[in-house]
Amino acid sequence: MNNFNDDKNISKHIVRRLPRYFRFLGELSEKGVERISSTDLSKLMNVTASQIRQDLNKFGGFGQQGYGYNVNHLRREIGRILGIDVPHKVIMIGAGNLCSAIMHYRSFPRYGFNIVAAFDVCPNKIGKDINGIEILSMDKLESYIDENHIDIAVLTVPTSSAIEVFERLGKTSIKGIWNFAHVDIEMPNNIKVENVHLSESLMILSYNIADVEGHE
Amino acid sequence: MNNFNDDKNISKHIVRRLPRYFRFLGELSEKGVERISSTDLSKLMNVTASQIRQDLNKFGGFGQQGYGYNVNHLRREIGRILGIDVPHKVIMIGAGNLCSAIMHYRSFPRYGFNIVAAFDVCPNKIGKDINGIEILSMDKLESYIDENHIDIAVLTVPTSSAIEVFERLGKTSIKGIWNFAHVDIEMPNNIKVENVHLSESLMILSYNIADVEGHE
């Protein structure tokens, strides 16, 4: 939980920009940069310095006039706001190709997202493992989540099964669903859903290609 | 190319909503629904009817008062605006797990995104195939793109190689890059880039979980 729950004015747009700040600050930190002005950060990130100041002031403002931002401090604070200063227990549902790709992503464990089990309906897969993580039967889904205090379920099942899985998850103690299935589901307010609709992203690219004259 | 290049007022936000309209209209069409009012569509999509009317009026407005929208016609028009009424030739760069997952996505060929080759630097992979598509050497990247009139390159290489690949693509006739590497690169205006930063999406989910009181 972060300290900013009482600030109802943080727009979704600002929140969506925070991971990008986090990434650039991480790269600066790796290069040994200790502090940076909003002007230099704005050039690096290709946004205006005023947007940077506005965004970060929303979170209390970590900069000091004439000094700029302390890179490590600001990165740590943004990490804390994003809730990635605490580890998350993650399960995969649907042990196919996309599941396998996600399980091999090295940056997820680095940010504290620890995959502890995968689930599938396919008898050929159950009992095997991906990257050392065992594939369990979907029969055990609810009990596993509740007994192991799982935070996040990653949904990489086909669209046709997704609604049923959402309904089952809705009755568990899961806190968040990272959904790659091509459906939008309304869940109770205590379960957060973040959708990654890959074909929609590809359509946007298609639009931008077609739109050669360029809109802003 | 679409007919709306002369309308500079189409906001990115509206464009980003079009694929979702396209998906819902496709589902209605599959169910045999021929027409729908903005009110019914708004309930289905969980947005306001006024937003639907505003969005679709931007594109000339396909609805008729008292009749609603013709589902197939509207879907076809949105598909045309998105540029997915024409096929796209696609190559994959980086033949790893994520590449394999994308190559097995059934919805991409359905929308006219046809993967014709994959590229990798790894000698063990070159000459093999994924899902029937041959893996070629990165040495052939530029000549293959230009000779085969490739529209889109999908980048699933590690972050460390991504910048070099972007630079190489910048000298080809490629029109768009669908980028899964964890970098943002500025490209010449004739090459469009659509980023899918998976770890940023997961951080947003983490924020929303931490933020249990719920912001709007």
Question: What does it look like?
Answer:
Two copies of one chain form a homodimer. By secondary structure, chain A is α/β, with parallel strands linked by helices. Chain A contains nine helices and nine strands. Chain A has helices at residues 12-30, 38-45, 49-58, 71-82, 97-103, 107-110, 141-148, 159-169, 198-210; strands at residues 35-36, 69-70, 88-93, 113-120, 129-130, 133-137, 152-155, 176-179, 192-195. In chain A, strand 5 and strand 6 form a beta hairpin. In chain A, helix 2 (38-45) packs across helix 3. The longest helix of chain A is centred in the first third of the chain and has 19 residues, at 12-30. Mean pLDDT of chain A is 88; it is low at 1-8. The interface between A and B is large, with 67 and 67 residues.
Helix share of residues of chain A? Answer: 40-55%
Oligomer: homodimer
The number of E-state strands of chain A comes to 9
User: What order do the strands of the largest sheet of chain A run in, or round the barrel if closed?
Assistant: 5-6-4-3-7-8-9
From N to C, what is the helix and strand string of chain A?
Answer: HEHHEHEHHEEEHEHEEH
* Total helical elements of chain A: 9
Q: Which strand-content bin applies to the residues of chain A? A: 15-25%
What ranges of chain A have pLDDT less than 50 throughout 5 or more consecutive residues? 1-8
Biggest interface, and residues per chain?
A-B, 67 and 67 residues
